[in-house]
Fold:
Amino acid sequence: MTTTDVSPPPPLSPLPQRRRPRALATPAIALAFWATMAGTTVPTPLYPLYQHAFGFSPLMVTVIFAVYAAGVVAGLLAFGRLSDEIGRRPVLAVALLLSAVAAALFAAADGLAWLLGARVLSGLSAALVTGSATAALLDLAPPERRPRAQAVAITANMGGLACGTLFSGALAQWAGAPLRLPWLVVLAAVATALAGLALVPESAPAPAGLPRPPRPRFRPRLQALRIPAGIRAAFLRAALAAGCGFAVLGVLTSVTGLFLATVLHLAAPALTGLVVFLAFACTALGQLLARVIPPRLALPAACTGLVAAAALTAGALLGQALAPLLLGAAVNGLATGIAVGNGLATINTGTPPQHRGEAVSTFFAILYSMLSVPVIGVGVLIQASDLRTAGVVFSALVAALALVVAVSLARRPAGATPDGLR
Structure:
């Protein structure tokens, strides 16, 4: 709504026609975000089926998952500012197209190389859509509705991750063509989201307040990674805590199906999807809770949750029980979300705007590195021993690192501010 025109509107004002596409822009962007992220977790319940079809080892399952995280990190570093330079809509379109190509590769896969290539493209699509969709949602929201726009971004992001594994598992178990049908659903969702981009106005501001050039130009350069000196201690605590949670999410996403099939003798893709759905859904809830939990209590609560989740996961492995695994996935998700929310709040309140993008990129580069590297370590341990031993060792390491963060919090000076800044 403008403030310059104070005359009464005519009976058939064009204003509603201008508002309608803008009102539909938010759900269209959210759909693009959701569809892209859903495509990244569709393989989770299918890994045991791919393993049986193509004959690769549990270690290779973890490698397939890890290359996704490598694609995300590469995309964040290389294209983190792309939507600022060429606009939000083009980057959203590229992300959706990459997601579609990845889904097509998965649907046509007849060997390991296809899966690896598809996962890299999935990672790049996730990196592109995360920054551009979040920025577009915030661009379109008036200042008083920015918190709501952030909540929409969190819901679309984590909701996509959660729903992708849930519907994939259900289709794989109760419908035909388990290695094809889920990808056809992804392609349909992506096609719908691409069509919805017609409702999205370009919202990226032109450089220096000037009109945007008719032909966007992109100057490729790597995003700098930097930890702001003024919040270094608080930043590292939040990154390590959230990274512990991401490491558990990575292991759950890659080997839950293997655990259910070989340890619990439950070869049920739908159940695999449910476990990972709980983890990601609770991560979204944790990020929303982080906005209302007092900052000084957020990281202690997250560390406590991470230790509890590690104990539950180890109990599930040692006791060969499903219930502790389900509860552990939920508790880990809540703790991870709280830690992520605390880290982003620390960056937003303690970093100058001109360095905020670097700090956020550094934060997520750490998280996705901790998502991928420990997963491969677990795969190596599985090869050297067995899944139960590898899982218990991994759970113990996660609990130990979370306890280190908790101890560092207890040793903060009395004069530290609530968010950990000195």
User: Anything to note?
Assistant: The first helix runs from residue 15 to 41. The two ends are 42 Å apart (CA to CA). The CA atoms of residues 3 and 63 lie 56 Å apart.
